[in-house]
């Protein structure tokens, strides 16, 4: 399993090939469409992260010493960004998730999507993913 | 017709099409493209005329009002009070002392709920709102209803987004203590029959508050003709600055209401034993008011008076029709809110897409629209949708703006489909 920063660098390299915003967003939309959906039974209020505009569902599962994430959103651009976050963080160790510096978002020019005023639930989602990392780390210690 | 226009009927109006050039921001860019601003229902842009008035105030006229004996303070006070008179004329109120300067429509509603409601609401009574209300005309009433033990009832709408007045008639009784509805729906653009609503409520002696936040962008209004007891609106939604708005109320009612905020300006005499309160409008204007905001709002009223209100309405209707038919041609558009009488607001969904995604793509194309629930969650729940894409037009928009929007929606459809 490549580490968090290797995956981030790979995404940054992929994005460097795009000439304009349209190609970039078409790629994000495609990723959004191909994100493996969270099982419908988890699309409940227990797993929801409510943005003002779009909703995100997030579930974390522990597998050995790794954490796997499953997520979905009702907005496809949000979903595309989620799929990148999952690519970066899913399958990593809890402490690495909790301490991850997610610099790729700014590097590929999507920082605006993480502004709290975008109200798309992404900021809360990252917090939640890191929180899961922290929580599971402490469980392992116990 | 408001007195200001009657008195000036000999003046020559400017053509509405000239308005666009008065708004400097409309020649700027967003994301590298010329800005197409279609979110005036959230906040309108400001003409140079208003910007100049604000600039001049701080450069040449600034001093506190109603306090100094020196000439500069007198000048600021005169300008401030002239603005109150301009606003009175704009809404055709009877007396300028019925015009209370507040921060915006939201504060105006809170003032009435807290002052009138605290004094006059009785437990077991009812407050009637409508399905079309903005959160700012719901939450203040819920707060006082909870405190005083009242129930909130809601006038339903039909699928076009029009209020069901026959149901409203059945809801009315002696138990009702306030009716609060908007003049124009921010999310759908429906123009409500406010005069009829007021007449119906008054048969039961029920006071009516009209939230006019969306109405004043489209021209002057006539509070005496409408007959409401309270009318509120915001300056920033009618070419004026933010942070200033108006609560207009009937003098008789305002006089009976206790002050809401305490402080300077709203008092006559103060001792630690007892304070006596000032008269209208100062009773409700504690502290140093938003002097510059009021002057800016007065300038916005003056700006409006350069145009023929009939021509403004006709022009906006033309834009509305052009936008609606253009979107119809795109295909896969679901219009939300199709009232017979509506203002220049088009709320819609693009089949198979989320409003947020469409909003992001339009933003990249330099087009500013609002997406989401428009602070009307109960209304969106009623339609079973997460929100809409809303294009709202003002007299500074033109058909090129609409063409850009249609092209943008086509692009979004292609990318997201």
Oligomer: heterodimer
Overall SS class of chain A = alpha+beta
What is the name of the CATH superfamily of the largest domain in chain B?
Type I PLP-dependent aspartate aminotransferase-like (Major domain)
Amino- and carboxy-terminal Cα gap of chain B: 49 Å
Shape of chain B: globular
Give me the CATH fold name of chain A.
Answer: Sufe protein. Chain: A
The gyration radius over C-alpha positions of chain B equals 22 Å
Estimate percent helicity of chain B: 25-40%
Largest sheet of chain A: 3 strands, antiparallel
The H/E string of chain A reads HHEEEHHHH
Runs of chain A with pLDDT <50, length 5+? none
User: What's the total count of β strands of chain A?
Assistant: 3
Description:
The complex is a heterodimer of chains A (142) and B (417). Chain A has 142 residues and is α+β, with helices and mostly antiparallel strands. Chain A has a single domain (4-141), classed as Sufe protein. Chain: A (Alpha-Beta Complex). Chain A contains 6 helices and 3 strands. Chain A has helices spanning 4-15, 21-34, 76-89, 94-99, 104-107, 122-141, and strands at 48-50, 55-63, 66-73. In chain A, β2 (55-63) and β3 (66-73) form a beta hairpin. The model of chain A has no long low-confidence stretch (mean pLDDT 85). Chain B has 417 residues and is of the alpha/beta class. In chain B, the strands form 5 sheets. A 7-stranded mixed beta sheet of chain B has the order 4-10-9-8-7-5-6, sandwiched between helices. A 4-stranded antiparallel beta sheet of chain B has the order 13-14-17-16, with helices on one face. Chain B has a two-stranded antiparallel ribbon with strand order 1-2. In chain B, a hairpin with a 2-residue loop joins β1 and β2. Classes of the chains: A alpha+beta (142), B alpha/beta (417). The interface between A and B is medium-sized, with 16 and 17 residues.
């Amino acid at each position: 399993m490549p580490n968090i920063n290797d995956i981030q660098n790979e995404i940054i390299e992929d994005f460097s090939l795009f000439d304009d915003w349209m190609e970039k967003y078409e790629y994000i939309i495609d990723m959004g469409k191909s994100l493996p959906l969270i099982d419908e039974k988890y699309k409940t209020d227990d797993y929801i992260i409510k943005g003002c505009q779009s909703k995100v569902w997030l579930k974390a599962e522990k597998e050995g010493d790794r954490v796997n994430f499953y997520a979905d959103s009702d907005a496809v651009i949000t979903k595309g960004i989620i799929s990148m976050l999952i690519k970066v963080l899913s399958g990593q160790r809890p402490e690495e998730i909790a301490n991850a510096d997610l610099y790729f978002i700014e590097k590929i020019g999507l920082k605006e999507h993480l502004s709290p005023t975008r109200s798309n639930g992404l900021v809360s989602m990252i917090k939640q993913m890191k929180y899961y990392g922290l929580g599971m780390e402490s469980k392992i210690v116990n | 017709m408001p007195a200001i226009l009657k008195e000036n009927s000999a003046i020559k109006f400017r053509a509405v099409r000239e308005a666009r050039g008065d708004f400097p921001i409309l020649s700027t860019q967003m994301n590298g493209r010329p800005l197409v601003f279609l979110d005036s229902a959230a906040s309108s842009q400001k003409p140079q005329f208003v910007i100049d008035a604000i600039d001049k105030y701080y450069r040449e006229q600034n001093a506190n009002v109603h306090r100094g004996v020196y000439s500069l303070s007198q000048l600021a006070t005169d300008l401030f009070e002239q603005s109150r008179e301009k606003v009175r004329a704009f809404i055709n109120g009877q007396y300028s002392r019925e015009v209370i300067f507040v921060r915006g429509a939201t504060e105006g509603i809170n003032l009435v709920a807290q002052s009138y409601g605290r004094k006059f609401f009785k437990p077991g009574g009812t407050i009637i709102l409508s399905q079309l209300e903005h959160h700012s005309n719901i939450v203040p009433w819920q707060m006082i209803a909870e405190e005083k033990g009242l129930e909130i009832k809601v006038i339903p709408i039909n699928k076009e987004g029009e209020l069901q007045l026959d149901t409203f008639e059945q809801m009315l009784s002696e138990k009702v203590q306030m009716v609060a509805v908007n003049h124009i729906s921010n999310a759908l653009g429906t123009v409500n029959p406010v005069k009829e609503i007021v007449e119906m409520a008054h048969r039961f002696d029920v006071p009516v508050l009209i939230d006019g936040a969306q109405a004043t962008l489209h021209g002057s209004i006539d509070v005496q003709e409408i007959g409401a007891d309270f009318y509120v609106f915001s300056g920033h939604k009618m070419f004026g600055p933010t942070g200033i708005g108006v609560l207009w109320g009937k003098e008789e009612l305002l006089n009976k209401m206790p002050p809401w905020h305490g402080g300077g300006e709203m008092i006559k005499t103060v001792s630690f034993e007892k304070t006596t309160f000032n008269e209208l409008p100062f009773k409700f204007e504690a502290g140093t008011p938003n002097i510059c905001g009021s002057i800016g709002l007065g300038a916005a009223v003056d700006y409006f008076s350069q145009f023929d209100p009939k021509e403004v309405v006709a022009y906006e209707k033309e834009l509305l029709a052009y936008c609606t038919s253009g979107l119809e041609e795109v295909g896969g558009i679901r219009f939300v809110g199709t009232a017979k009488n509506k203002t220049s607001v088009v709320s819609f969904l693009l089949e198979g897409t989320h409003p947020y995604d469409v909003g992001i793509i339009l933003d990249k194309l330099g087009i500013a629209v609002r997406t989401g629930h428009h602070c009307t969650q109960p209304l969106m729940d009623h339609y079973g949708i997460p929100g809409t894409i809303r294009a709202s037009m003002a007299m500074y928009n033109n058909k090129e703006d609409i063409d850009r929007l249609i092209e943008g929606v086509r692009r979004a459809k292609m990318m997201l489909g």
